[in-house]
Design brief:
With 186 residues, the chain is mostly helical. The chain has one domain (4-185). The protein is 77% helix and 0% strand. The chain has 9 helices and no strands. α1 (4-31) packs antiparallel against α2 (41-68), α1 (4-31) runs antiparallel to α7 and α4 (89-110) runs antiparallel to α6 (117-124).
């Protein structure tokens, strides 16, 4: 196999970073009640959900190719238990934290009707922690790839997109959202 698994892991890691960024941006926009005639809220919700699923597919290939590649000696346990790996324990641990958070978001999303909106929202808000942890994993473990101009530009563009979406979500006032917040904290 040579370096094909290494290239698969790196490539799918970068694509996962892009997809996770798009998912985070769409989630922030959707939560901010953005709507237009061309993009009704149900469409935005559907794109957010489908991008989330595509992100999971690329994440699965990223993780599997990293584990199958014998170079780093990454075990399945290293993927879910943070900071136990012998290969870059801190940076791989950040990836494990991000993986655990994404699993929590997925599982609670699948169980949303059974666990209730309050618990779903509480766990779903962890996606705002998931994104920077995943990006730190990518930058930290990326090695020489991270110093390439286009990779650095990709990470900076992702950071700018999420920053703009989150700031916009925090600044835009929406009566419906304000009412939900009051009900949620009561």
């Amino acid at each position: 196999m040579g370096q094909s698994l290494w290239f698969a892991s790196r490539g799918t890691g970068l694509v996962t970073a892009l997809l996770l960024t798009a998912t985070t941006v769409l989630g922030a926009i959707h939560a901010g009640r953005v709507t237009s005639a061309r993009w009704p809220r149900f469409t935005l919700h559907a794109v957010h959900r489908n991008l989330s699923l595509l992100t999971l597919v690329f994440l699965a290939v990223h993780v599997a190719s990293a584990i199958i590649d014998p170079y780093a000696g990454i075990a399945w346990l290293d993927v879910v238990v943070p900071f136990v790996s012998t290969y870059h324990p801190f940076w791989l641990g950040m990836g494990a934290v991000a993986f655990d958070l994404i699993l929590a978001v997925v599982v609670t999303s699948l169980l949303r009707r059974r666990i209730g909106l309050w618990w779903w929202r509480a766990v779903h808000l962890s996606a705002y922690a998931l994104w920077p942890v995943a990006m730190l994993h990518g930058v930290g473990i990326g090695g020489a790839d991270t110093r390439l101009g286009w990779v650095l530009a990709l990470y900076l563009a992702c950071a700018a997109a999420v920053l703009v979406a989150v700031v916009r979500r925090l600044l835009v006032r929406d009566p419906d959202r304000d009412a939900r917040r009051r009900a949620w904290t009561s």
